[in-house]
Design brief:
single chain, about 180 residues, mainly alpha, Arc Repressor Mutant, subunit A, Tetracycline Repressor, domain 2, 2 domains, 9 helices
Amino acid sequence: MTEAAVDRRVARTRRDVIGATAELLLEHGWDGVTHAEVARRSGYSKATIYTHWPDRVDLVRSAVDKICDAADHPVPTGVLLDDLRSALLDFAADLTDGHLDRLLAGVIERASTSDVVRAMRTRLYDTGTQALRSVLQAHLDNKDVEPTLALLTGGVLIRVSFEGVPATEAFVNDLIARVVRPID
């Protein structure tokens, strides 16, 4: 067997296993990701999975990287309120439709016990807020960016994840008006 054939097999195995892990993570949260369940879902043996990902955190980290690498954000138009609305609605959809709230819950729960998980939390936050941060940086003083970002994303996160209520366009518009108006 040639080296190229082996490399393609390894790449296919990695793609399939990480894809299965990402699906499990989004569907069932951290506790849904086990070597046995990833093996069942991906079609590879547990031995193969343990060889490449000895710990569950290794599987989850690879899945988080895949999820973050695939993140797609709305393209800014240059109009502050329109761009904030679009980015916040996208963030809300990722939490609800993409089930990122389950993923975040598991990462937040474990972040205090592991540098690896803290790095995942940071990557998820940075990726999830990238569009909003860019919009805010284009329109606000630097000192106002992070507090405004926290208020906007926090409002949506609380609404969706804690209250279990959709962050509708009306809610997002009201939130933006309450947070951004005092800065203008």
